[in-house]
Amino acid sequence: MLPFHLAANYLLYRLRAFKLHGVHSPFVFDLYQNVILHEGDYYSYALIEELRGALLLEERAIPVTDFGAGPKAGLKKNRRISYIARTSAKPAKYAQLLFRLVAHFQPTTIFDLGTSLGITTSYLAMGNKEANVYTFEGCPSIAAEARANFEKLGMQHVQQVVGNLDDTLPQQLQQVKRLDFVFFDGNHRYEPTLRYFEACLSKHHEHSVFVVDDLYWSAEMKRAWQEIKQHPQVCQTVDLFYVGLVFFRKTQPKEHFTLLY
To answer: Model pTM greater than 0.70?
Structure first.
Protein backbone atom coordinates (compact mmCIF):
# COMPACT_ATOMS: atom_id res chain seq x y z
CA MET A 1 0.00 0.00 0.00
CA LEU A 2 1.27 3.49 -0.88
CA PRO A 3 2.02 5.95 1.95
CA PHE A 4 -0.72 8.56 2.33
CA HIS A 5 1.20 11.42 0.70
CA LEU A 6 2.10 9.24 -2.30
CA ALA A 7 -1.46 7.96 -2.63
CA ALA A 8 -2.83 11.52 -2.56
CA ASN A 9 -0.32 12.67 -5.18
CA TYR A 10 -1.08 9.62 -7.31
CA LEU A 11 -4.78 10.44 -7.29
CA LEU A 12 -4.02 13.99 -8.46
CA TYR A 13 -1.70 12.57 -11.13
CA ARG A 14 -4.44 10.27 -12.45
CA LEU A 15 -6.83 13.20 -12.66
CA ARG A 16 -4.31 15.25 -14.69
CA ALA A 17 -2.88 12.50 -16.87
CA PHE A 18 -3.61 12.16 -20.58
CA LYS A 19 -3.73 9.15 -22.82
CA LEU A 20 -2.72 9.26 -26.48
CA HIS A 21 -5.65 11.40 -27.61
CA GLY A 22 -4.43 14.25 -25.40
CA VAL A 23 -0.92 14.40 -26.88
CA HIS A 24 -0.53 16.92 -29.71
CA SER A 25 3.28 16.98 -29.94
CA PRO A 26 4.45 14.57 -32.70
CA PHE A 27 7.73 13.98 -30.82
CA VAL A 28 6.02 13.11 -27.53
CA PHE A 29 3.22 11.19 -29.29
CA ASP A 30 5.75 8.92 -31.00
CA LEU A 31 7.75 8.51 -27.79
CA TYR A 32 4.64 7.65 -25.79
CA GLN A 33 3.20 5.20 -28.30
CA ASN A 34 6.36 3.42 -29.42
CA VAL A 35 8.67 3.59 -26.39
CA ILE A 36 6.84 4.35 -23.15
CA LEU A 37 3.85 2.08 -23.83
CA HIS A 38 5.84 -0.60 -25.67
CA GLU A 39 4.86 -4.01 -24.32
CA GLY A 40 7.28 -6.21 -26.23
CA ASP A 41 9.90 -8.34 -24.56
CA TYR A 42 13.68 -8.24 -24.83
CA TYR A 43 16.25 -10.90 -24.06
CA SER A 44 17.98 -8.51 -21.63
CA TYR A 45 14.87 -8.35 -19.45
CA ALA A 46 15.06 -12.03 -18.55
CA LEU A 47 18.79 -11.88 -17.77
CA ILE A 48 18.47 -8.94 -15.40
CA GLU A 49 15.28 -10.16 -13.74
CA GLU A 50 16.95 -13.52 -13.08
CA LEU A 51 19.71 -11.62 -11.30
CA ARG A 52 17.14 -9.57 -9.36
CA GLY A 53 15.44 -12.77 -8.25
CA ALA A 54 18.71 -14.15 -6.91
CA LEU A 55 19.44 -10.92 -5.03
CA LEU A 56 15.98 -10.93 -3.46
CA LEU A 57 16.85 -14.31 -1.92
CA GLU A 58 20.35 -13.33 -0.74
CA GLU A 59 20.36 -13.18 3.05
CA ARG A 60 24.00 -12.13 3.38
CA ALA A 61 24.43 -8.78 5.17
CA ILE A 62 26.90 -6.01 4.26
CA PRO A 63 27.82 -2.72 5.97
CA VAL A 64 25.99 0.19 4.37
CA THR A 65 26.72 3.90 4.62
CA ASP A 66 23.69 6.01 3.74
CA PHE A 67 24.50 9.23 1.84
CA GLY A 68 20.93 9.98 0.80
CA ALA A 69 17.95 11.63 2.43
CA GLY A 70 16.45 10.92 5.82
CA PRO A 71 17.53 10.97 9.47
CA LYS A 72 19.87 8.00 9.05
CA ALA A 73 21.95 9.67 6.35
CA GLY A 74 25.67 9.19 7.04
CA LEU A 75 25.16 6.30 9.44
CA LYS A 76 26.53 2.79 8.90
CA LYS A 77 24.33 -0.22 9.36
CA ASN A 78 24.46 -3.85 8.28
CA ARG A 79 21.74 -4.63 5.77
CA ARG A 80 20.81 -7.80 3.96
CA ILE A 81 21.29 -7.92 0.21
CA SER A 82 17.65 -9.00 -0.11
CA TYR A 83 16.50 -5.87 1.73
CA ILE A 84 18.62 -3.58 -0.46
CA ALA A 85 17.33 -5.27 -3.61
CA ARG A 86 13.74 -4.96 -2.44
CA THR A 87 13.91 -1.32 -1.38
CA SER A 88 16.47 0.32 -3.67
CA ALA A 89 16.17 -1.20 -7.15
CA LYS A 90 13.61 0.28 -9.53
CA PRO A 91 10.65 -2.04 -10.20
CA ALA A 92 10.90 -3.90 -13.49
CA LYS A 93 8.25 -1.71 -15.16
CA TYR A 94 10.32 1.46 -14.74
CA ALA A 95 13.76 -0.11 -15.12
CA GLN A 96 12.65 -1.60 -18.42
CA LEU A 97 11.35 1.81 -19.49
CA LEU A 98 14.89 3.14 -18.96
CA PHE A 99 16.19 0.31 -21.15
CA ARG A 100 13.76 1.28 -23.92
CA LEU A 101 14.63 4.97 -23.66
CA VAL A 102 18.33 4.18 -24.05
CA ALA A 103 17.63 1.74 -26.90
CA HIS A 104 15.52 4.41 -28.63
CA PHE A 105 17.78 7.44 -28.24
CA GLN A 106 21.10 5.53 -28.39
CA PRO A 107 23.08 7.82 -26.06
CA THR A 108 26.84 7.31 -26.06
CA THR A 109 27.59 8.85 -22.65
CA ILE A 110 25.30 7.86 -19.78
CA PHE A 111 25.48 8.97 -16.14
CA ASP A 112 23.59 6.88 -13.59
CA LEU A 113 23.48 8.79 -10.30
CA GLY A 114 22.81 5.97 -7.85
CA THR A 115 24.08 2.45 -8.56
CA SER A 116 22.81 0.45 -5.58
CA LEU A 117 23.20 -3.24 -6.53
CA GLY A 118 23.32 -2.41 -10.22
CA ILE A 119 19.91 -3.66 -11.39
CA THR A 120 18.79 -0.34 -12.86
CA THR A 121 22.29 0.38 -14.13
CA SER A 122 22.24 -2.93 -15.97
CA TYR A 123 19.04 -1.99 -17.77
CA LEU A 124 20.59 1.33 -18.81
CA ALA A 125 23.78 -0.35 -19.97
CA MET A 126 22.06 -3.11 -21.93
CA GLY A 127 19.99 -0.54 -23.80
CA ASN A 128 23.15 0.40 -25.71
CA LYS A 129 26.16 -1.86 -25.29
CA GLU A 130 28.32 0.64 -27.22
CA ALA A 131 27.71 3.42 -24.69
CA ASN A 132 30.08 4.60 -21.99
CA VAL A 133 28.08 4.15 -18.77
CA TYR A 134 29.32 5.86 -15.61
CA THR A 135 27.47 4.76 -12.49
CA PHE A 136 27.89 6.58 -9.17
CA GLU A 137 27.63 4.92 -5.75
CA GLY A 138 28.54 6.36 -2.37
CA CYS A 139 28.84 3.14 -0.35
CA PRO A 140 31.95 1.03 -1.12
CA SER A 141 30.43 -2.27 0.02
CA ILE A 142 27.35 -1.81 -2.17
CA ALA A 143 29.59 -0.78 -5.07
CA ALA A 144 31.53 -4.02 -4.66
CA GLU A 145 28.32 -6.03 -4.88
CA ALA A 146 27.27 -4.12 -7.99
CA ARG A 147 30.67 -4.78 -9.58
CA ALA A 148 30.17 -8.51 -9.10
CA ASN A 149 26.71 -8.25 -10.67
CA PHE A 150 28.06 -6.41 -13.71
CA GLU A 151 30.63 -9.16 -14.14
CA LYS A 152 27.89 -11.80 -14.00
CA LEU A 153 26.08 -10.02 -16.82
CA GLY A 154 29.28 -9.54 -18.82
CA MET A 155 28.98 -5.75 -18.94
CA GLN A 156 32.44 -4.34 -19.53
CA HIS A 157 31.27 -0.90 -20.67
CA VAL A 158 30.12 0.13 -17.16
CA GLN A 159 32.55 2.29 -15.23
CA GLN A 160 31.96 2.67 -11.50
CA VAL A 161 32.57 5.94 -9.69
CA VAL A 162 32.65 5.33 -5.93
CA GLY A 163 32.43 8.04 -3.27
CA ASN A 164 30.25 10.90 -2.11
CA LEU A 165 28.35 12.23 -5.13
CA ASP A 166 29.00 15.80 -4.02
CA ASP A 167 32.67 15.15 -4.79
CA THR A 168 32.61 12.53 -7.55
CA LEU A 169 30.04 14.14 -9.87
CA PRO A 170 31.96 17.41 -10.47
CA GLN A 171 35.18 15.44 -10.97
CA GLN A 172 33.64 13.05 -13.50
CA LEU A 173 31.88 15.86 -15.38
CA GLN A 174 35.31 17.30 -16.13
CA GLN A 175 36.27 14.02 -17.83
CA VAL A 176 33.45 13.94 -20.41
CA LYS A 177 32.76 16.20 -23.37
CA ARG A 178 28.99 15.96 -23.19
CA LEU A 179 26.14 14.08 -21.54
CA ASP A 180 23.57 12.27 -23.64
CA PHE A 181 21.55 10.58 -20.89
CA VAL A 182 21.37 11.07 -17.12
CA PHE A 183 19.32 9.16 -14.56
CA PHE A 184 19.00 11.13 -11.31
CA ASP A 185 18.54 8.69 -8.43
CA GLY A 186 21.35 9.65 -6.07
CA ASN A 187 19.53 11.78 -3.53
CA HIS A 188 15.92 12.56 -2.68
CA ARG A 189 16.28 16.03 -1.22
CA TYR A 190 15.49 19.35 -2.86
CA GLU A 191 18.85 21.10 -2.74
CA PRO A 192 21.12 18.20 -3.85
CA THR A 193 18.71 17.20 -6.62
CA LEU A 194 18.74 20.68 -8.13
CA ARG A 195 22.49 21.01 -7.63
CA TYR A 196 23.17 17.74 -9.46
CA PHE A 197 20.73 18.75 -12.19
CA GLU A 198 22.45 22.11 -12.67
CA ALA A 199 25.87 20.45 -12.69
CA CYS A 200 24.84 18.03 -15.43
CA LEU A 201 23.34 20.87 -17.46
CA SER A 202 26.89 22.10 -18.02
CA LYS A 203 27.42 19.15 -20.39
CA HIS A 204 23.94 18.74 -21.90
CA HIS A 205 22.98 19.36 -25.53
CA GLU A 206 19.73 19.72 -27.44
CA HIS A 207 19.16 15.98 -27.73
CA SER A 208 20.14 15.03 -24.18
CA VAL A 209 17.64 13.06 -22.11
CA PHE A 210 17.48 13.56 -18.34
CA VAL A 211 15.32 11.24 -16.21
CA VAL A 212 14.43 12.24 -12.65
CA ASP A 213 13.39 9.49 -10.26
CA ASP A 214 10.78 9.52 -7.48
CA LEU A 215 9.11 12.83 -8.36
CA TYR A 216 6.61 12.60 -5.52
CA TRP A 217 8.72 10.70 -2.97
CA SER A 218 8.61 13.74 -0.66
CA ALA A 219 7.54 17.37 -0.60
CA GLU A 220 11.16 18.28 -1.36
CA MET A 221 11.25 16.11 -4.50
CA LYS A 222 7.89 17.45 -5.65
CA ARG A 223 9.21 20.98 -5.26
CA ALA A 224 12.45 20.10 -7.09
CA TRP A 225 10.45 18.63 -10.00
CA GLN A 226 8.36 21.79 -10.31
CA GLU A 227 11.51 23.91 -10.46
CA ILE A 228 13.11 21.63 -13.04
CA LYS A 229 10.03 22.01 -15.24
CA GLN A 230 10.32 25.78 -15.07
CA HIS A 231 14.07 25.89 -15.70
CA PRO A 232 14.82 28.18 -18.68
CA GLN A 233 16.91 25.51 -20.42
CA VAL A 234 14.22 22.82 -20.12
CA CYS A 235 11.93 22.66 -23.15
CA GLN A 236 9.73 19.58 -22.65
CA THR A 237 8.91 17.33 -19.71
CA VAL A 238 6.86 14.16 -19.35
CA ASP A 239 5.50 13.29 -15.90
CA LEU A 240 4.94 9.53 -15.50
CA PHE A 241 4.45 9.88 -11.72
CA TYR A 242 7.35 7.76 -10.50
CA VAL A 243 9.78 9.17 -13.07
CA GLY A 244 9.96 12.38 -15.06
CA LEU A 245 11.52 12.78 -18.50
CA VAL A 246 13.28 16.02 -19.36
CA PHE A 247 14.11 17.19 -22.90
CA PHE A 248 15.92 20.22 -24.30
CA ARG A 249 14.64 20.29 -27.89
CA LYS A 250 14.52 23.95 -28.86
CA THR A 251 12.92 23.11 -32.19
CA GLN A 252 9.85 21.88 -30.28
CA PRO A 253 7.40 24.08 -28.33
CA LYS A 254 7.98 24.36 -24.58
CA GLU A 255 5.40 21.94 -23.17
CA HIS A 256 4.78 19.83 -20.08
CA PHE A 257 2.90 16.54 -20.33
CA THR A 258 1.39 14.32 -17.64
CA LEU A 259 0.85 10.92 -19.22
CA LEU A 260 -0.71 7.74 -17.88
CA TYR A 261 1.76 4.94 -17.30
So the answer is: yes
